[in-house]
Amino acid sequence: MNFKHICIIGLGYIGLPTASTFAKYGIRVTGVDNNSEVLEALKHGKVHIYEPGLSEVVGAAIESGNLCVAAAPVEADAFIIAVPTPFYGEKKADLSFVRSAAESIVPVLREGNLVVLESTSPPLTTEEIVRPILEKSGLKAGIDFKLAYSPERVLPGQILRELIENARVIGGVDRSSAEAGRDLYGIFVKGDILLTDATTSEMVKLMENTYRDVNIAIANEFSRLADRFGVDVWEAIRIANRHPRVKILNPGPGVGGHCISVDPWFFVEAAPDLTPLIFNARKVNDSQPEFVMKIIERALGALTGKHIAVLGLAYKPDVDDLRESPAIDVAKLLVKDGAVVSAYEPFKPDFIVAGVKMVHSLEEAVSQADLVVLLVGHSQFKSLDPKRMATITSTRLVLDTVNGWDNQAWQEAGFKVIKLGKGKM
Ligand SMILES: NC(=O)c1ccc[n+]([C@@H]2O[C@H](COP(=O)([O-])OP(=O)(O)OC[C@H]3O[C@@H](n4cnc5c(N)ncnc54)[C@H](O)[C@@H]3O)[C@@H](O)[C@H]2O)c1
After folding, report:
1. Could you give the CA distance from residue 11 to residue 388 in angstroms, rounded to a whole number?
2. Which atom of ligand 1 is found nearest the CA of 121?
3. Which active-site residues does the annotation give?
4. pLDDT band at 186 (very low <50, low <70, confident <90, very high)
5. CA of 335 to the centre of ligand 1 (A)
6. Whose CA is nearest to atom 31 of ligand 1?
7. Cβ < 6 A, ligand 1 pocket
8. Looking at the chain, which residues constitute the CATH 3.40.50.720 domain(s)?
């Protein structure tokens, strides 16, 4: 298939880099978002999310005339849906964004078009939710128009490179739909393009993130065991990983973000009778902030009135994404236990967490602290000079939950270092 004009619905962390990359490769792209602030920002050449290199690529795409933005889909050769798929209250998938995005395509869907769902979705979403909505147009999927599911597997912080280099999975509702998807993404994808059916590709994406969640859960459980048995989990993992068939991941304060902490629930919701391991892995990772709290309480006793400086609130290093972040859970638990919490998140200094004082500098965060807690391994935190830290705070107690600091250097600067998963002092 030949694509001259595509319409991308949802201009967030996934949709915007995808839109600007297609535009960079000479395709006319209409980027659609139902958030007027996003559209206004983009119209003025401003990018509302942080991703390295994205501002430049978006700016160039708009400048070239290849990328324009709109509040609703327009006629095009292909449509890509990249809207959120969060969960609500009871860890149930919220597919309202996918539904409304598909509905918005119906009036402009034409014979010969391709529609691709990219949003991470529970099994059968393409077949049982998106297909019937699109077929309200009177056109039949696989016959009059092509329909495929293609999950996004990029790593935030590396999105622009990984979009092009990663292997891409495309699952069609029939073979010709998968092949149309290959023609579309083949415009810029240099990695392998793997064709399958729509439901398999939905499962592939969920399996990838569930696999990582379960593996992080076992690392987190190891950190608790190491704490109990007086072992340094980081040393134990390093040694275990010398086994040729073992690759244990890193423990930490929990698992967050829009993907790994969410997607396994889609399996649990779809088949609760088949997913006890996945369910319990989620429980372990969701309760890791409480383990961090136990470590803090062991160090400080009752927390009422204690000043605690929290370094980092993002769900992982060097990103501005705070969705489902376990660091925020730790900050909230500290507040609940009566601590006076100052948090410094350099990628989103004005974020609001009830009861937490958000500050704009490291100095402000640590000046009054009884304890400094490293919750996110942002590069600027990992490279902190402990000697400098000793001049801006009077506390000599730090907790490192991500193995970001070199114990010896911090001890030499006069600090007592507590490390998550290091039962051996
Ligand atoms: N962020 C990641 O790193 C990542 C990685 C892989 C997969 N995913 C998946 O990709 C999907 C998109 O995630 P994201 O991080 O880009 O989300 P996001 O929240 O950053 O962006 C989604 C955008 O869609 C817009 N939107 C919502 N409903 C709409 C509608 N009906 N019409 C038009 N616009 C609409 C929102 O205003 C928002 O700007 C999700 O399913 C997510 O799980 C995300």
Report:
1. 41
2. 41
3. 205, 259
4. very high
5. 31
6. 101
7. 9-15, 32-35, 38, 82-85, 97, 100-101, 104, 118-120, 152, 154, 156, 258-259
8. 5-191, 219-425
Rounded distance between C-alpha atoms, residue 76 and residue 69, angstroms = 13
| Residues contacting residue 119 through CB under 8 Å, at least 6 positions apart | 10, 81, 82, 83, 84, 85, 97, 98
Mean pLDDT lowest among 121-130, 153-162, 282-291, 395-404: 153-162
Ligand 1 atom 1: residue of nearest CA: 13
Residue 401 pLDDT: 98
Q: 81 CA distance to ligand 1 centroid (A)?
A: 9
Residue 423's pLDDT is 87
CA distance 176 to 147: 9
CATH of range 219-425; options 3.40.50.720, 1.10.760.10, 3.50.50.60, 3.30.70.260: 3.40.50.720
Residue 278: per-residue pLDDT: 98
Task: Give the number of other Cβ atoms within 10 Å of residue 423's Cβ.
Answer: 16
Query: Rounded to whole angstroms, how far apart are CA atoms 396 and 417?
Result: 8
Tell me how far the alpha carbon of residue 33 lies from the centroid of ligand 1, in angstroms: 10
- Give the long-range contacts of residues 361-369, CB within 8 A, separation 24 or more: 362/311, 362/392, 363/392, 365/309, 365/310, 365/311, 366/309, 366/342, 366/392, 366/393, 366/395, 367/392, 367/393, 368/307, 368/309, 368/340, 368/342, 369/307, 369/308, 369/309, 369/342, 369/393, 369/395
CATH superfamily of 5-191: NAD(P)-binding Rossmann-like Domain (3.40.50.720)
Q: Name the residue of 7, 9, 14, 46 to mutate for ligand 1: max ligand atoms within 8 A of Cβ.
A: 14
This prediction has a pTM of 0.93
Q: What pLDDT score was predicted for residue 132?
A: 98
Mean pLDDT is lowest, of 86-95, 173-182, 292-301, for 86-95
Q: Are 50 and 320 in contact (CB under 8 A)?
A: yes
Pick the residue whose CA is nearest to atom 41 on ligand 1: 119
